[in-house]
Amino acid sequence: MSAAREIFLRYLAPTSTAPLMLEIESAEGSIITDTSGKKYIDLISGISVSSLGHNHTEIKKAIIRQLDKHAHVMVYGEFIQAPQNNLAELLCSLLPSTLNSCYFVNSGTEAIEGALKLARRFTGRYEIMAFRNAYHGSTAGALSLMSNSYFKDAFRPLVPGIKWIDFGNASHLKLITENTAAIVTEFVQAEAGALTAEDSFFAALKKRCDETGTLLIADEIQTGMRRTGKLFAFEHYGTVPDVLVLAKAFGGGMPLGAFIAGRKIMQTLSENPPLGHITTFGGHPVCCAAAEASLKIISAISEKEIYERENLIRQMLVHPSIINISGKGLLLGIEFENTEICQQVIKQCILNGIITDWFLFAPKKLRIAPPLNISLHEIQTACKIILSSVNTVTSKT
Ligand code: PMP
């Protein structure tokens, strides 16, 4: 075992008993290189983070420019810092006019926590609803939104007052009532296996929220930043959420999250009590500088480029063992007959130089969420390798 592996296993806290343990040397574009010099095509972008590929020149320049001026100077919300101002102004210019106040935090789960607190504070209600099989984060509030008891029972008691309904099932929407502060949704359920719902579902959801005075919170942590083709997935459905939650690709590879709402709603976190939500590092200037550079580039990518890549993947990944491809844009779930085949294919892909994985609640689906600017040639190479990996696995079983 290499010295690096020994240190990793000895000193770094594990998250599972079977980490991938690739020893990373460098990463550029869609290619990750390990310390032995082996190259991998990255089909998952660090789980929907590196959407412009690794080591992007413009993002790197923005980081260095900001570091030369200053890094942390004060907790969030006190000093005027140009990178936060610039990012908030650009983001709001790309959003519907009702989403005009940005609260910057450090991660996805924190952004969800902030959105939940905001909904309770604004509505004065405590009940929150979420959809079954969604993942919204690992801190206590966000974990409480998870319907899957296997991953949360060991950590009870969690936040009370959470109810679940089925994603895409319009008949469940009547369970949203005048007691519901907010319902948290994704527009493509990522960890459920890149699941989509009927177009009409989201309009019905928003209508029910408006009838009951319930805030619609959109978790676009995975689906935002053009991952599904549109800059934000809610744009596919003409449904504007009351609170938008971003993280992952939003930071351009740096840790940054945000929840965005209308000024009137957001204002409530600053009064009665003041300091209703505070964070030391939220909106770190270096992260905001990276995010602004990244957002400028991502917002200029055409939807067409994403669908061209999606179509190529859908056309190429045809195999008797692939029973379905779910998802939208470059958030795709390749479904196999069973978990065993999928897990074997993922292992074989990594051996063959393709980085992929499965979804938390869909272990029989292989995840495809590459950098948005992956070349068509890289996609062709990756799909050929996936197909040959499937052949290797299925010829053994
Ligand atoms: N929501 C969704 C949809 C996610 O995919 C994730 C992360 N996988 C989160 C929330 C939590 O984000 P973070 O890991 O940055 O806390």
Shape: globular
**Helicity range:** 25-40%
CATH architecture of the largest domain: 3-Layer(aba) Sandwich
- CATH fold-level topology of the largest domain: Aspartate Aminotransferase, domain 2
Q: Can you tell me the CATH class of the largest domain?
A: Alpha Beta
Secondary-structure element pattern, one letter each: HEEEHHHEHEHEEHEEEHHHEEHEEH
What would CATH call the homologous superfamily of the largest domain? Type I PLP-dependent aspartate aminotransferase-like (Major domain)
Total tally of structural domains = 2
Instruction: Strand order, main sheet: write it out.
Output: 4-10-9-8-7-5-6
Strand tally is 14
The radius of gyration over CA amounts to: 21 Å
Coarse structural class: alpha/beta
Number of helices: 12
- First-last Cα distance: 30 Å
What's the rounded overall pLDDT mean? 97
What can be said about the biggest beta sheet? 7 strands, mixed
| Oligomeric description of these chains | single chain
Unreliable runs: none
Q: What ligand species are in this complex?
A: 4'-deoxy-4'-aminopyridoxal-5'-phosphate
Question: What is the structure about, briefly put?
Answer:
By secondary structure, the chain is α/β, with parallel strands linked by helices. Helix content is 36%, strand content 17%. The two termini are 30 Å apart.
Walkthrough of the structure:
With 397 residues, the protein is an alpha/beta fold. It has two domains: 3-56 and 302-394, Alpha-Beta Complex (Aspartate Aminotransferase, domain 1), CATH 3.90.1150.10; 70-300, Aspartate Aminotransferase, domain 2 (3-Layer(aba) Sandwich). It has twelve helices and 14 strands. It has helices at 3-11, 45-48, 57-69, 82-94, 108-123, 140-144, 199-212, 263-267, 285-300, 303-316, 339-351, 376-396, and strands spanning 24-28, 31-34, 39-42, 101-105, 127-131, 162-165, 180-185, 215-219, 243-246, 257-261, 322-328, 331-336, 354-355, 365-368. The strands form three sheets. Strands 4-10-9-8-7-5-6 form a seven-stranded mixed β-sheet, with helices on both faces. The protein has a four-stranded mixed β-sheet with strand order 1-2-3-13. Helix 3 runs antiparallel to helix 9, helix 10 (303-316) runs parallel beside helix 12 and helix 11 (339-351) packs across helix 12. It is globular, with a radius of gyration of 21 Å. The model has no long low-confidence stretch (mean pLDDT 97). 4'-deoxy-4'-aminopyridoxal-5'-phosphate binds at residues 47, 107-109, 112, 135-137, 186, 190-191, 219, 221-222, 247. The site of 4'-deoxy-4'-aminopyridoxal-5'-phosphate has 15 residues, from helix 5.
